[in-house]
Amino acid sequence: MGTEENKAVARRCMHEVLINGNLETLDEVLAPDYMNLAMGGADREGAREMVAGSHGALKGQRFEDEELVAEWGAVFARFNYLVTLPDGSTTSFRTIAYYGIVDDRIAVNDVMSDPNMMEVFGSLGPPSD
Fold it and tell me: Please, what are the domains in the chain?
């Protein structure tokens, strides 16, 4: 897979999964043995729970100033992630993300943000029934 195709996989994960909450796409873009380092080594099911919880709780999610750089099987993304939190306040995260791509799917993901996204979103869980 070439660098443009790898960027397309990362972009698809960012927009279709994270912003739109499409869990079917999550299964298409994340490898079966996916690991998210920023989420303490969470697997694909952990990512699914995070997406479901955050998509239900956050409004107005969007990326600004998006830039993707790819080399071999790695894609690095730089962007500002803007959201409206459940209490109605808005915040933005200055973010750098690493996507390790193997066999056309994301196998490893690591995200660093300021403020720390995982701390802010820590209380968001799967949507209640």
Answer: 3-121 (3.10.450.50)
